[in-house]
Amino acid sequence: MPDGEGLVLAFDYGLKFTGVAIGEIGTGVCRPLDTLQTTTRAARWLAVDTLLKTWEPAALVVGLPLDAEGLEQESTRQSRNFARELARRSGLPTHMVDERYTSLEAWQTLKQQGKTHAECSEEEHAEAAALVLRTYLESYPS
Questions:
Q1: What integer pLDDT is reported at residue 111 of this predicted model?
Q2: Burial of 79 (0-12, 13-18, 19+ CB in 10 A)
Q3: What is the DSSP letter of 115?
Q4: Helices (H) and strands (E) in the chain — how many of each?
Q5: Could you tell me the sign of the dihedral formed by the alpha carbons of 6, 3, 80, 56, in that order?
Q6: SS3 of residue 106 by DSSP
Q7: Which conformational region is residue 4 in: left (phi greater than 0), alpha (psi within -120 to 50 degrees), or beta?
Q8: Which positions ≥6 away from 71 have C-beta within 8 Å?
Q9: Residue 55, Cα to own-chain centre: how many angstroms?
Q10: Are strands 17-24 and 59-64 parallel, antiparallel or unpaired?
Q11: Terminal-residue alpha carbon distance, the chain
Q12: Of 12, 55, 52, 29, the residue nearest 137 (C-alpha)
């Protein structure tokens, strides 16, 4: 784990869309950053590598999609693979956080902000990544 300060990037991984959020360990403040919409694995990693170079995070967080009972599913395996590759490529501490219901919560948050259906669809992945990151930062030892 980082030493109590620095930026953290969080990812809500998906095959079509990957939400990204950024936060600061010392303050616990985080926000949605972007949604990567990539059609190939190479394009996804190019976008991720650009984010890593731009933000120079101290740590990374990836959402762990479990079903309602906490069991693993195909998307769990895909997210674990993404997290492993992310850690290998970046050399940074990479943590996984349970992301159950974050997409639903993200959608509801955006609707409460008065977003249209189209805006919610566009922003929900980054908002979900911010929720995953908030969970991580709240559990971070002070």
A1: 64
A2: buried
A3: -
A4: 4, 5
A5: positive
A6: helix
A7: left
A8: none
A9: 14
A10: unpaired
A11: 12
A12: 29
Q: For residue range 40-81, list pLDDT tens digits in order.
A: 999 999 999 999 999 999 999 999 988 777 777 788 899 999
How far is it, in rounded angstroms, from Cα 79 to Cα 73? Answer: 10
CB count, 10 Å around CB of 41? 10
pTM score: 0.85
pLDDT reading at 107 higher than 60: no
Give the per-residue pLDDT at 124. Answer: 80
Helix axes 74-90, 41-55, angle to 10 degrees: 50
Is residue 136 within 8 A of residue 96, CB to CB? The reply is no
Q: Give dist(CA 81, CA 24) in Å, integer.
A: 25
Domains of the chain: 7-138 (3.30.420.140)
